[in-house]
Amino acid sequence: MTSTPLAIQQLEKNFQQGDRQIQVLKGLSMLANSGEMVAIMGPSGSGKSTLLHVIAGLTPASAGQVKINGEDIAGLSDRRLTAMRRRHIGLIFQAFNLIPTLNVHDNIALPMLADGRQAKHDAIAQLAERLGIGDKLGVYPNQLSGGEQQRVAIARALLPQPALILADEPTGNLDSDNGQALCKLLRDFCSKEQHCIVLVTHEPAVAIWSDRVLVMRDGSFSREINVTKDMTAMDLARAYQEA
Ligand SMILES: Nc1ncnc2c1ncn2[C@@H]1O[C@H](COP(=O)(O)OP(=O)(O)OP(=O)(O)O)[C@@H](O)[C@H]1O
Ligand SMILES: [Mg+2]
Q1: Which domain holds residue 191?
Q2: Is residue 72 part of a domain?
Q3: CATH number assigned to the domain comprising residue 201
Q4: Pairing relationship of beta strands 164-168 and 196-200 according to DSSP bridges
Q5: Count of domains in the chain?
Q6: Residue 17 CB–ligand 1 contact under 6 Å
Q7: CA 216 – ligand 1 centroid, Å
Q8: CA–centroid distance for 29 within its chain
Q9: Does a structural domain hold residue 199?
Q10: Ligand 1 pocket test: which of 12, 15, 54, 217 has the largest number of ligand atoms within 8 Å of its C-beta?
């Protein structure tokens, strides 16, 4: 059975800059189902990161609605919002926020423990292995490269098996081999384990792993590109340029 981990409707976000308001999100609507991977592409400044922040409840919408697993997040207290985020959303953002005084294993386990749940060592070891950091569980973040730190943050986001994974340029610090390996892992999470992934990227080689691409221009979705089986990253790049 498919469910809809994410539904947004007529979403708007304004920021105050000095004495004027700037409209960053201008009435966005979208749905994303379980088992689906949706990529968002768009020029720098078009509002992609802002959209993910609003969806995650890290900053409130100015108008419109975000529903996570059918629940409108606007009605939640801070405490319930945090609990909802821990339980249902995996965040893979550019700032990794690893805890420097905890080793890799404990950094990955932390969100589960904070939610009062158990973090099984075997599950952590297996996930770390899939991400190519299986030999790093005992070391501390400052002993890791940027790409390795990013993979720890990814393991931390995936361990609780969230219904919705929000990823902001998750391959940004990875070389192309590791970037593709991560895409494959996210694709597997999505298809086999029925997670829903919304991923922001500039790279057609990353977006090609998704089911569809929403093109964002100046705070609106300007077009949707359906990613077909026979499409290459080059085809997608072309379709994006034309969007
Ligand atoms: N807290 C804030 N206060 C004021 N303006 C903001 C704030 N956050 C973002 N903006 C503005 O909103 C616009 C969209 O920013 P956003 O970070 O969402 O872009 P983006 O599409 O993720 O870009 P990039 O591809 O460079 O990461 C920018 O013009 C930015 O300056
Ligand atoms: Mg951004």
Answers
A1: 34-58+77-242
A2: no
A3: 3.40.50.300
A4: parallel
A5: 1
A6: yes
A7: 13
A8: 17
A9: yes
A10: 15
